[in-house]
Write a structure and sequence with these properties.
It contains six helices and ten strands, in the order E-E-E-E-E-E-H-E-E-H-E-E-H-H-H-H. It is α+β, with helices and mostly antiparallel strands.
Length: 252
């Protein structure tokens, strides 16, 4: 197959990348697809589940003020939930909308609050391409359990990169049926899969996914936010070596 007609893309650095986003479809999302499926922002279509390698898992705070799927940024947010500082420097501890346990509230109440949640930067193993996904509301609890699982695997010295499946599941509440994202570890990558994904992972691991996902209104804001996070990020080779161990590691 000829490669001569493939588009030539020059001058792009990792801070220029904007990976497609997956969003969990709810009954009020207003896009094609079934509730519980995932909407892909670039392909403009829904998939039933996502098979992924997770490169980054960041705990955040976000106040959307709406429930429909939109490309508009949130009303307010924090890239680091533990900092208790919003992106514009406000004190989250003093915020009347701060909510650390969103799974205890109904959908109407959650829409008015600033929710603690997670942002994932990963590689879609079916497509071999990067993606980002924000998980909040009732998805925050299973994601916190998932993050805890990864932390303890690391403490035990098990740093083999894991294959993760994200599925949308329904939950009947007093407020009606809602959907949340349930992650499940399905195994570890083979050495061949690691070798194939390593070049892409090296490009992505320094990418600050949260500013990209929120898409600030101006290019200047985007550049400033991404430059700040890149300065706080480990060099790609150092960071990726922690995620994707190389030979002679035994894969179990």
């Amino acid at each position: 197959m000829t490669t001569e007609l493939f588009p030539q893309i020059g001058g792009m650095l990792p801070q220029d990348y904007i990976p497609p986003e997956y969003k969990l479809i709810q009954r009020t999302s207003g896009v094609k697809g079934q509730p519980g499926q995932f909407w892909h922002s670039l392909k403009q279509e829904a998939v039933a589940d996502i098979h992924a390698l997770v490169l980054k898992l960041t705990e955040t705070r976000t106040k959307w003020g709406r429930d429909e799927i939109s490309s508009d940024p949130p009303e307010c947010s924090s890239d680091d939930a533990s900092s208790f500082k919003s992106r514009d420097g406000q004190d989250c501890l003093e915020c009347e909308f701060r909510c650390d346990n969103p799974w205890d509230y109904g959908p109407e109440e959650r829409r008015s609050k600033c929710l603690k949640g997670f942002v994932i930067l990963g590689i879609d193993l079916d497509e071999g391409l990067p993606f980002v996904m924000r998980l909040s509301g009732i998805s925050a609890l299973p994601m916190r359990e998932f993050a805890t699982n990864l932390k303890f695997r690391a403490l035990k010295g098990n740093l083999a990169p894991v294959k993760v499946t994200f599925r949308g599941e329904s939950k009947a509440t007093q407020y009606g049926e809602s959907y949340f994202v349930q992650p499940a570890i399905e195994g570890t990558l083979t050495e061949e899969e690691v070798e194939a994904l390593l070049p892409l992972a090296k490009e992505l691991v320094a990418l600050p996914a949260v500013p990209v996902l929120e898409q600030p209104k101006t290019k200047k804001e985007l550049a400033e936010a991404m430059t700040k996070q890149l300065q706080e990020t480990k060099p790609p080779e150092e960071a990726i070596s922690e995620k994707l161990p190389r030979k002679p590691r035994t894969w179990t």
